[in-house]
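User: Reviewer 2 asked us to show a designed sequence for the structure in our supplementary figure. I'm pasting the structure tokens here. Could you produce the per-position amino acids so we can include them in the response letter?
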């Protein structure tokens, strides 16, 4: 990591060798300008997200992901503040959250290059390059058919355990995601298949889109509720049972179900998820878990 008064720079291979003594922002702009079509995933609010190919020293030509922030402008900053939202100014949040989570054993996309420059928050320029996960699939897509085609119990159990442990570790490290949905988990299909075939002891499921993460010593309760409520909301249409949700809670808390449900946070999580579902779909969510959980807590749903 190299830092100056107004610029921070981190480079790992292959970019460390390729961009030595180069203007890294000029190199990133070339990559950004060359992107089009299916390789360009986002181009709005001063941010471009894209896939690109790059020649490494040993591995040949490989694919990577780039998030290039060119400054959000004062209009976007004030719009967020008026909506009581914390504006995302650049790649800094995602870079620091990724480094923190990786050191804690959470599966994330490995940062390979990062830089940030400029003191003016509206015009701050930054970028983050990570590895590209070919052959991965979002959990939203992987679980989409579960409501009509129940998955093998082992598959479901392994994924619930993995997501619960990821959420637990992230929150223990003082990080809340703010967009904590199934679509922001990328399942490494190859490693998962090896686990199911008893050819491996573990598998990878990567947490992505960390740009809105907040890092503190402890995550405030309201942000725990928002993360867990978002995750629950995103799982309501995939046919999970009350037992599946209870299994998640036991792993997340590390306590018995009875002890876990004494904490009123779970009724708050349920209400948060229900409100999101009603807002998006205009109807009650199809959730067996709600009545059983609130009954166990002694909480009456209104």
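Assistant: Here is a per-position design you can include in the supplement:
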């Amino acid at each position: 990591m190299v830092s100056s008064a107004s610029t921070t720079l981190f480079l790992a291979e292959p970019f460390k060798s390729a961009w030595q003594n180069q203007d890294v922002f000029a190199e990133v702009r070339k990559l950004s300008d060359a992107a089009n079509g299916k390789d360009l995933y986002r181009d709005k609010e001063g941010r471009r997200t894209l896939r690109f190919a790059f020649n490494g020293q040993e591995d040949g030509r490989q694919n990577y992901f780039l998030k290039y922030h060119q400054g959000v402008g004062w209009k976007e900053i004030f719009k967020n503040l008026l909506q009581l939202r914390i504006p995302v100014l650049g790649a800094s949040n995602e870079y620091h959250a990724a480094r923190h989570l990786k050191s804690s054993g959470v599966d994330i996309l490995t940062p390979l290059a990062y830089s940030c420059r400029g003191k003016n928050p509206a015009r701050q320029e930054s970028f983050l390059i990570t590895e590209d996960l070919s052959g991965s699939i979002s959990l939203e897509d992987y679980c989409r058919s579960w409501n009509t085609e129940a998955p093998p119990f082992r598959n479901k159990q392994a994924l619930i355990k993995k997501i619960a442990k990821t959420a637990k570790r992230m929150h223990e490290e003082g990080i809340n995601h703010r967009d904590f949905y199934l679509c922001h988990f990328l399942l490494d299909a190859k490693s998962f298949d090896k686990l199911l075939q008893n050819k491996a002891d573990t598998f990878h499921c990567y947490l992505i889109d960390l740009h809105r993460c907040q890092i503190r010593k402890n995550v405030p309760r309201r942000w725990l509720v928002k993360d867990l409520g978002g995750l629950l909301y995103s799982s309501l249409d995939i046919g999970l049972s009350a037992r599946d949700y209870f299994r998640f809670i036991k792993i997340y808390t590390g306590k018995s179900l009875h002890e876990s449900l004494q904490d009123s946070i779970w009724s708050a999580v349920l209400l948060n998820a229900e409100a999101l579902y009603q807002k998006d779909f205009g109807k009650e969510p199809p959730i067996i878990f709600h009545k059983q959980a609130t009954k166990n807590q002694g909480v009456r749903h209104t």
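For the response letter, you might also mention the following. The chain is about 40% helix and 20% strand. Confidence is low (pLDDT under 50) at residues 297-302.
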